[in-house]
């Protein structure tokens, strides 16, 4: 399944075709999600159509890719890791459906397509989010468990990242910060929780699925935290520098909603510097993985170069 | 912790103080939920206040009581069962918060208090539901696991009952049935999923937490299914026979929303007969538990006699 030779440490980001790797992993993740989810026509069809509509709306599968690459960096494989990679993607998708609701960010487009509530109505969109969150834990429960990381440990990892102290805390703080003057440290609090927590969780779960050592897990944690923050800073930058067409979603929404962003608080140039510094820290964090992390490095580089 | 002598089979529903038992278990469940949930002032305080507002709004704790009584009937105890009892209550509460939203049943009152979105706004109410659902799985992950029932089995039980084929399927079918002429069998489909699934799950989890045998689990499953259906039929009956004040929520809502109910489809008398027949089946299901199920029997009787 892997499109890279990094497992033996022989590959290098410069001579590695990341796009081919991402395409291959996206295909594998999509096939797995298709197997894990009830069919579209399963009764009641509306909810399964709505779950699949958002889950297969062209997401970049960045979190699953990071999860699978982290597993590979620790000697794991796609098959063992896939339930966890898919669980994280279901949680990510549920959070987008609920964030897009009129009571939250009130967004009509996501990934170039109408958002769930615009297609299915608010009631079904709320339930589709609920169902994907529940489905995430059902899928995670299908992992095999590992000597160092039991099902219990895996579940606690996922529930913590998705819970009221992390992912949901970020959305609450984001919601409450709209139209207010907030500080750079408050914005960091939001980004750490709204984006970095689940991204870091994806990377850590990948390591766990390879039964990684404690030091490997620490390296992946530092990597995931920094890549996650970098990813969100870049999202903020893209929101003001790109058009809606380029982004596939409504551009300039943050400014329109009077949401604080890195560029609005500290300026565009410093925001770009911070994104670069966070990525450097992520690279540095990978050193203990001793040359097996070339795919993770390539993914981190990719995050800084993306334009949508 | 237990207020009954049923554990040794010596008690009998007729000479057993159910109200004292329920009061004692409600207190124990409330104390456990208080320990499991983040404090009200934990940042971001809004979400934890909202989670606690709905969770401690005077719920009858019927599902936890059934869960704990099922464990007792199989020789288990409160301590081992409590994480699962509390997880089920968190799922129940999340489903109520989301069901009450304007996009769903649009209810202003629940248990005599303003609903979550009336107090905290729709955005926070949606997130409080999300957080309680996630919290449920976090709490369930704290159970100790049992020889016949691993953490994996317990998670699958919970995610199935709460997922798009059961609890959420019921809410979807309910939403889609509003204002339409639906048959008695379609209504049964809704009630099986919207109410019976989680109630049955509570009873099954109680048995699992006592490491029950396969035949004990089957008995509890039949019991839970029938009690769950009876419970919903009675809810339908009370909605048209009681005032809002007596119910602590808006009465007559089903009729106002043109929702099909047992009384509206088959009449009040036949609905009462069905509730009684379902309870009889529930009693019969308990026979394999050989006299250790007096508390479960008392709870089932209580469900038929309740007036709110």
SSE layout and pairing:
Two copies of one chain form a homodimer.
Chain A: H1 18-36, H2 45-55, H3 62-73, H4 78-99, E1 109-110, E2 113-114, H5 116-120, H6 122-140, H7 151-162, H8 167-177, H9 184-209, H10 214-241, H11 244-247, H12 253-256, H13 262-266, H14 268-285, H15 294-305
Antiparallel strand pairs in A: 1-2
Features:
homodimer; 308 residues; mainly alpha; Farnesyl Diphosphate Synthase; two-stranded antiparallel ribbon; disordered N terminus
Question: TL;DR?
Answer:
2 copies of one chain form a homodimer. The first copy, chain A, has 308 residues and is mainly α.
Question: Could you please describe the fold and organization of this structure?
Answer:
The structure is a homodimer of 308-residue chains. With 308 residues, chain A is mainly alpha-helical. The first copy, chain A, has one domain: Farnesyl Diphosphate Synthase (Orthogonal Bundle). Chain A has 15 helices and 2 strands. Chain A has helices at residues 18-36, 45-55, 62-73, 78-99, 116-120, 122-140, 151-162, 167-177, 184-209, 214-241, 244-247, 253-256, 262-266, 268-285, 294-305, and strands spanning 109-110, 113-114. The longest helix of chain A is centred in the C-terminal third of the chain and has 28 residues, at 214-241. The radius of gyration of chain A is 18 Å and the shape is globular. Chain A starts with 17 loop residues before the first helix and ends with a helix.
């Amino acid at each position: 399944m892997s499109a890279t030779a990094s497992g033996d440490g022989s590959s290098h980001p410069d001579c590695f075709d990341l796009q081919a790797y991402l395409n291959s992993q996206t295909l594998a993740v999509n096939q797995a999600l298709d197997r894990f989810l009830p069919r579209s026509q399963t009764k009641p069809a509306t909810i399964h159509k709505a779950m699949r509509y958002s889950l297969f709306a062209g997401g970049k599968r960045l979190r699953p890719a990071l999860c699978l690459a982290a597993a590979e960096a620790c000697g794991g494989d796609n098959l063992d890791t896939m339930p966890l990679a898919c669980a994280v993607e279901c949680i990510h998708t549920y959070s987008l459906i609920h964030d897009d609701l009129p009571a939250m960010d009130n967004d009509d487009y996501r990934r170039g397509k109408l958002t769930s509530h615009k297609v299915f109505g608010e009631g079904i969109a709320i339930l589709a989010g609920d169902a994907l969150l529940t489905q995430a834990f059902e899928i995670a429960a299908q992992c095999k468990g590992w000597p160092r990381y039991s099902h219990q440990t895996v579940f606690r990892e996922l529930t913590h990242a998705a819970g009221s102290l992390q992912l949901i805390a970020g959305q609450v703080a984001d919601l409450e910060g709209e139209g207010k003057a907030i500080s750079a440290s408050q914005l960091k609090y939001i980004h750490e929780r709204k984006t970095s927590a689940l991204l870091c969780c994806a990377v850590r779960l990948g390591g766990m699925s390879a039964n990684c050592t404690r030091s490997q897990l620490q390296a992946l944690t530092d990597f995931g935290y920094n890549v996650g923050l970098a990813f969100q800073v870049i999202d903020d930058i893209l929101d003001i520098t790109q058009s809606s067409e380029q982004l596939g979603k409504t551009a300039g929404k943050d400014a329109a909603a009077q949401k604080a962003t890195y560029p609005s608080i500290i300026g565009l140039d410093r925001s770009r510097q911070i994104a670069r510094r966070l990525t450097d820290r992520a690279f540095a964090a990978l050193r203990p993985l001793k040359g097996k992390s070339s795919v993770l490095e390539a993914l981190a580089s990719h995050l800084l170069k993306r334009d949508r």
